[in-house]
Amino acid sequence: MKKYVLWLTPLLISLLLAACDTNSENTSLLATVNEVPESYVSMNVNGFDVSLENEKGTCTLVYSRLDGYPRIEGKKIAMDMEAPCNFIHYKGSPQFYEYGRDRVKFKVFIVVGGPTDAKYPKGDDLMPKGCGTLLQRIAIFSDQIRIDFPSFSPGAAPQCPSVGMEEVWYATY
Questions:
Q1: Where are the extended beta strands (E) located within 2-119?
Q2: How far apart are CA 145 and CA 4, in angstroms?
Q3: Average model confidence (pLDDT) across the chain
Q4: Contact 78, 58 (CB under 8 A)
């Protein structure tokens, strides 16, 4: 038995030293874990704290609800479009339309994003590198959030988030 212990001890020590080597690839993992995702917009809607972020090149909806039941914290949904992205705005605020009755009221927002079109390189204040080629609807209820999948195209030209949109785009939810 002593023979096996004596043989395993140097092996374990060498494995531990290799794991603690500061020049190994483990240090690069620590750098990527601490990176903060790029955030485009955040707001509170129907008790949810909602934000749009760029997570590894994908537009991601991040939301929390700390005062309701069940408590939701930092839930993420990858949207069906590339970053950058933003909510459609009207007069400087995210545009929405409210539908439903009494306890089943919900607000519908539209997110624009996806790859920018090289034919239209000029963007606006909210997406300065070019406007988006994809749209996606988000319905925010008092107890849940729903996202339309897949995303859809606004038509021939890209959509800039600061232009606003007609209600028909929201109402087809």
A1: 38-45, 48-55, 58-65, 72-82, 86-87, 89-90, 93-94, 96-99, 106-113
A2: 59
A3: 79
A4: yes
